[in-house]
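To illustrate the input format used throughout this study, we show a single complete record. The first block contains the structure-token representation of the backbone; no residue identities are included at this stage. The design step must infer an amino acid for every position from geometry alone.
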């Protein structure tokens, strides 16, 4: 069975057991695919990259929520109309 490896760097589980930090550093800040019998078992992701991934996931979830909530119709107005309305209000308040 063929597997797609989503990483430029790979290491075996035995190499990971021998020296975990060497495997992580061997990825130069990228994820390292950990292979078990030449099949990806999991990805070893450095903390900094993981944090970036979590920010991206959170942003995507927030965008989805915003799109669900944004059902208000918009109205086009010109900047001159807005200025005129604001001018009227401030003169009425005086």
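Output of the design step:
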């Amino acid at each position: 069975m063929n597997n797609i490896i989503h990483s430029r760097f790979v290491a075996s589980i035995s190499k990971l057991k021998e020296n975990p930090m060497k495997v992580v550093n061997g990825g130069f800040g990228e994820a390292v695919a950990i292979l078990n019998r030449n099949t990806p078992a999991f990805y070893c992701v450095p903390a900094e990259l993981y944090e970036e991934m979590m920010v991206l996931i959170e942003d995507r979830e927030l965008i989805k929520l915003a799109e669900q909530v944004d059902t208000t119709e918009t109205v086009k107005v010109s900047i001159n109309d807005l200025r005129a309305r604001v001018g009227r209000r401030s003169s009425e308040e005086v």
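Structural context for interpreting the output: The helical segments are 13-18, 20-25, 47-69, 79-93. The two ends are 80 Å apart (CA to CA).
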